[in-house]
Structures are given as structure tokens and as C-alpha cells.
Amino acid sequence: MKKSKGVIIGIIIFLAVVTFPFLYNRGKAAPVPELVLTETAKAAQQCVRSKDYMQREHMKILDLWRHTVVRSGERVYVNPQGKEFNMSLSNTCLDCHSNKAEFCDRCHDYASVRPYCWDCHIDNPKESK
Amino acid sequence: MDSSRRQILKFFGISALAMSTKPVLDAFAAGQAAGDAEANEHTQSGPDALKARQWAMVIDTREFHSLEDVEPLIEACHKIHNVPHLPVKRHEIKWIWETEYKHAFPMKGARFMAEDLQHRPILVLCNHCENPPCCRACPTQATFKRESDGIVLMDFHRCIGCRFCMAACPFGARSFNFRDPRPFIAETNKQFPTRAKGVVEKCNFCAERLAVGQQPACVEASEDKITFGDLYDPESKVRELIKTNYTIRRKQSLGTEPAIYYIV
User: Fold this and answer.
1) Which chain A residues are closer than 8 Å to B191 by Cβ?
2) Å from B143 to nearest chain A CA?
3) Which residue of A has its CA nearest to B187?
4) Partner-chain contact A78 B194, CB within 8 Å
5) What is the CATH number of the domain that holds B98?
6) Per residue in B190-223, pLDDT tens?
7) Which of A24, A36, B152, B177 is most exposed, with the fewest beta carbons within 10 Å of its own?
8) Is 90 exceeded by the pLDDT of residue B132?
9) Is residue B6 part of a domain?
């Protein structure tokens, strides 16, 4: 009898410790970030592909772009609607989404993704400095 | 008893077959679906893109007399490609630079050579060899000879910084980023990416300019002292110059077939 008391207390302490982080953070989930579209993007209305496709697959498009540009030398992307884009991360994506901090970064911070592209690619092609 | 045992075994056999083919069929089905989704996007070259089987260059060294003649060309290249200027010699990054005859063409010098030839600045850069040893040394195919136009290119996205290519290149055309280059770029060209610490870099024959119909930056800055064109087009200006002048190439005996020709 004496022994089982210890066990029960042990179990309670264990449960308290294990569930603490969940209870502590309850109701405080980081809010889904607000993405800001620039005037250029608003005027264009459409991204390279549909919004849904971009949300899911933009990294695949970028992968296709960098592979095609560097390795086969083709630099023009034609989307299913027949619209042409120069396949460039800084010169095209960041032309419309020149507010990288309020767009790409905000979403990536939320999703905890850290693309290393900006070690080389210019992240503020439109700003003077 | 006997027959039911047989039936059970048959049943297991068929089920096993069915289960093992399902994933294969699924994979095929998925492949089809993905193919459909991407079937209607495509890539192409721009309307002005310059094309060749093997780009080549003829440098008329007779036209370069002093450092003032070569510096604007080097500057033009290094500026548009964000090549950093590092003060420490062994960290230096260079895409195109100048050297003396005896260093550019060892084995080709003569004693008591014309003073002018001995000391004139010879522009050297990646030779975009037809048989490039660097590409064979690269374990990730980060450096490769582009089939479409013969340029020896770097895919910085794949470079792991092992430097085998630097050891393989007999011309010292490659530089390694020992440090983050960004603080050493005086004025960044925002149209072109920089590089990062830990990758090898070199001349790209201005692949990004050829794609939009422009000549390489050094050629443009050279005022016709350098000629650029397709080595396999008998009508091209480089072929004309090679035919009508005596030209030499660097370390020809190594068999790498450099695509940079020098008139001396």
C-alpha cells in the first residue's frame, strides 16, 4: 500500500511535467502571418502560377528556374496561360514581391524555413542601398 | 483437407502479388498526374539569345601595351559580376586578369625576345576548354561543359567547395571564396547574384549577357581588340582571324583544347 502511494504521486508529477508545455502554450498559437502584397503585385493580380499552386509549390518553381537557367541556358518561363517570365529570383520574384520582409520572410519565419539563397541572391534589388 | 490447403496457399499467393503491384501502379498513376499538371508550362530561350556550338575568343595582344589598356576590361567584368576585391593576395578572386608572356605561355618563350612582347600585358581568363579537366574532377557536376554552347560553367548551387577543379585546372583560372565576399564588393550590381563563402568561382563567358543578345563585357569594353564568336561557324569572325593570323593558345600540349586564341 505504502509503495503504490509513491507510484501514484510519481505518475501525477510525471503527467504534470509532460503536459506542462501544452497547457502553458494553450491558446497562444502564433497567429498566421498577414502577407502584404506590393502595389506592383496588386496591379499584376496574378502570380507566376495560381495562388494555390504558388503556396504549395513555389520552391519547385524556383528549383526548375535555377536548374534551367544555369544548366540549359534557357531563361524564359512560359506559364500555362502563355505569359512569359524572366526566370530570376531577384529580378522577377522580388520585382513583384519587393517587400521580402513582409512577404517571403514573414511566411518563412512562421513555417520555420530558412532558405540560404540570400547568401548570394540580392534580397533588395529595388532599394538603393 | 488437401484441397483446402492448396486453396489457402493460392489465395495467399494471389494476395501477395496484388499487394506488391499496387504501389507500382500507384507510382505510375502519380507520375501521370504530375506530368499532366506540368505539361502546359514550359521554358525557352529569349528572342535575342546568341547561339553557338562552341564560343571562342581571339585576343589581339598586339593592341595591349600597358596596364591602362587592360584595366578597363578587367574592371568591366569584375563590376558586373560582383567580383570582390580582397586585399590579401592569397584570398584574391579573379575572373580575368593580366600576366606576362612568360607566365601565360611557358615553353613558348625565346631568349632575347622582343622587349615589347616580353612585357606586354596578356589577358588571361578561363579558357572554356573543349576538353576541360576541371569538369572531370568535380564530384558533384557543379562545374560542367554546357552542351548547348560549349561554355564551361559553374552551378554555384551545387558547389561543395572541395576545390578539386582548382587542382585540375592548368591555368589557375579558378578562385576560392575563403571569406564572405560581400563586404569586399565596392558597388553591387543588383542584377547579378554574389557568391558566398565556400564556393569556387571563375569566368562564365558572360552567359547571362549572351542570353539577351549582348557580347561579353570584356569584349564590349575592348573596342574590337578582342573578338568573340562561334569556333565551328566557318563564316564567323573568330574563324576569319584564326585563318588570317598566326595564333597561339595556352599550354596547348596538355590537350585541353582552350577556346581562347592569342595573336602575338
Assistant:
1) 90-91, 125
2) 10
3) A129
4) no
5) 3.30.70.20
6) 999 999 999 999 999 999 999 999 999 999 999 9
7) A24
8) yes
9) no
Nearest to A76 among B46, B191, B197 (CB): B46
Count of the separate structural domains present in chain A: 1
pLDDT band at B179 (very low <50, low <70, confident <90, very high): very high
Number of residues written out for chain B: 264
Identify the domain containing residue A121 by its residue range.
39-128
Domain assignment of residue B185, yes or no: yes
Task: Tell me the pLDDT tens digit for each residue of A8-39.
Answer: 999 999 988 888 877 887 767 777 888 889 99
Inter-chain CB proximity B155 and A122 less than 8 Å? no
Share of chain B above pLDDT 70, in %: 92
Which residue numbers of B have CB closer than 8 Å to A's CBs?
40-46, 49, 144, 146, 148-149, 153, 155-157, 188, 190-191, 193-197, 207, 211-212
Domain-located, residue A113: yes
Residue B96 lies in a domain: yes
* Residues B137-177: tens digit of each pLDDT: 999 999 999 999 999 999 999 999 999 999 999 999 999 99
Domain-located, residue B230: yes
Q: What is the mean pLDDT of chain B?
A: 91
The domain in which residue B241 lies consists of: 43-263
